[in-house]
Amino acid sequence: MYTLKERDDFFNSILDNIRKSEKLIGVYLIGSSSFGFRDIYSDSDFMIAYNKDYEVSDIRNEILSFFNKDDIGYIMERKWSETIWGISLYMKNGLSSDISFGPLDELKISSNQIKVGVDTNDALKEHLEDKIYHKKEKELDLSDEGWNFMYLIRKIRIALKRNNNIYAYQLLNDARLRVMNLEGHREKQKMHEFKAYNELNKDFLK
Q1: What interhelical angle do 165-186 and 145-161 show, nearest 10?
Q2: What is the pLDDT of residues 4-33, one digit of tens each?
Q3: Which residues have C-beta within 8 Å of that of residue 105, sequence separation ≥ 6?
Q4: pLDDT of res. 132
Q5: Which helix or strand (DSSP H or E) is residue 95 part of?
Q6: I want to staple 124 with a disulfide (CB 3.0 to 4.6 A). Which of 31, 41, 119, 200 is the partner?
Q7: Can you tell me the distance from the alpha carbon of 135 to that of 29, in angstroms, rounded to the nearest whole number?
Q8: Average pLDDT of 183-200?
Q9: pLDDT digits (tens, 9 = 90+) for 140-159
């Protein structure tokens, strides 16, 4: 298990390498890394904008050069389009990072938790302010939630009577998530990508 210092050094070394690279324009910090990390278990998520004069494969190799091969446990690579790729890195000491990269004008901003980490010419700041694409949080339709919850409870009871326990557990989890999401909505939490259920009202969590 890594220490806080190791996590901070890992995070800062990525930012330093981005600053030094002629191929990269800058980076957005995504998720908890955009506001200082939630705790020691938080990973580092980046959305990197690169210079369109370079091939995306060159950018991929440039980003991987930031890391010592001997420290990497395993890598998952993704290709969302011809110019937007992603790398998920899991280090042997437990550190992890999700890195997406593409030309700035093609990057789509869908997270509410985002800020500029490195910006060589203020282009990322302008891009963020323009909101070329911003995924709006869906309105939560509460009109049928009472019925939906009771329907799930009925299905759970039937599954238990049939000794179909695994299915009953799945339904129970669905019912719990519905209640948690309703409470999050009541507390005016931003429910897009919301995972911090432990931060809901303490009386509710009892």
Answers
A1: 160
A2: 899 999 999 999 999 999 999 999 999 888
A3: 127, 132
A4: 46
A5: none
A6: 119
A7: 17
A8: 65
A9: 566 677 788 888 998 999 99
Which DSSP string do the residues of the chain spell out, in sequence order?
---HHHHHHHHHHHHHHHHH-SSEEEEEEEGGGGTT-SSTT--EEEEEEE-TTS-HHHHHHHHHTTS-GGGEEEEEEEESSSS-EEEEEEETTS-EEEEEEEEGGG--B--SSEEEEEESSSHHHHHHHHTSSB-PPPPP--TTHHHHHHHHHHHHHHHHHTT-HHHHHHHHHHHHHHHHHHHHHHTT---TT---GGGS-HHHH-
With 50 as the cut, is the pLDDT of residue 46 above it? yes
Q: What is the dihedral of CA 190, 195, 124, 21, to 10 degrees?
A: 170
Q: Which residues lie closer than 8 Å to 122 by C-beta, 6 or more apart?
A: none
Only one residue has tokens 């600053």, namely: 19
- What is the β-pairing status of strands 44-50 and 24-30? antiparallel
pLDDT of residue 197: 62
Q: Please tell me the predicted confidence (pLDDT) of residue 198.
A: 67
Q: Which of 86, 90, 85 is nearest to 10 (CA)?
A: 90
Q: Give me the residue label for tokens 């519905």.
A: 178
Q: What CA–CA distance (Å, rounded) separates 94 from 67?
A: 14
pLDDT beyond 60 at 50: yes
